[in-house]
Amino acid sequence: MSNFPVWFQDWFFDRNLPKDREYRVLQIGTYTGDATEWLLNNRNVVLIDDVDTWEGSLELAHETINFSEVEAYYDSRFKEDSRVVKYKMTSNEFFKNNAKKYNFILIDGDHTASQTAIDGLNAFQCLEVGGIMAFDDYEWNLGKGSFYNPKDGINAVLNIANDYIRVIELSYQAWIEKVYED
Question: What is the mean pLDDT of residues 143-149?
Answer without folding.
Answer: 88
